[in-house]
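It is worth pausing here to work through a concrete case rather than discussing structure prediction in the abstract. The textbook approach is simple: state the sequence, then state the predicted structure, then interpret. We follow exactly that order.
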Amino acid sequence: MFEHLPRPLLFAHRGASIEAPENTLEAFGIALKLGTHVLELDVQESRDGHVMVIHDAELDRTTDGTGPVSARTLRELKRLDAGFRFKDIQGRTRYRGRGVRIPTLPELLEAFPDASFNVEIKADSERLVDTVLEAAGSLPSERMLLAAGREPIMRMLEARSPRFPLGMSHRAIRLVLQRVWTGRSIPSRYRGRALQIPPRRGLFPVATRALISAARRAELEVHLWTLNDPYEARAWIKRDVDGIMTDDPAAVRPILSAK
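Step two, the predicted structure:
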């Protein structure tokens, strides 16, 4: 995956989401200018079947709208202010009322034709899975990774045998972790080859040295989310992870350059 890019990979988590509203063209554009390798994003489905680049199933947290994304048509969603809730580190709502909109996946691919993408499908919808694959069109296979935390979505993806590499569901990741914790090797049967995990859950370690070593033997890549502290990112890079996901590529990018 992303074989044309250097390691470790730098993923912009929902774009440069510390500097601009998450999952918007503004945040993705800033991320690319900062030297990000891969744009990480989430997709939901509109009522009329369009692939909307937004994380939550509900509109309330990031826009001036309310209720489910899936209850609105594309035209209705495009009227919403996707910068309405965003506050920068100084607490300013400087993107409110500036015409920031929820993009569609085709709009994003057209806006950044040379970028690479990590797309997480959030809704259990066969139509959404098929529309994502259709939108990807002739995009080179090394420039997109498809992921889904929910097992039903991953099964839909796997059933279609897409030409793009895949991530792993939460269930598959738990099985991998259980094998490592009990001293067993990671099986090679998983279609997904990207182990995208947090360093820890609360006080419980997830990305251990044993896991990283076992993943390396099984030819899985380990991508950690979400690291905004450059010193923490540096520590994990020294442990040989394959990628870092961050909201703040401006802070983390120099660490990769100094590797």
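Step three, interpretation. The first strand starts at residue 9 and ends at 13. The mean pLDDT is 96.
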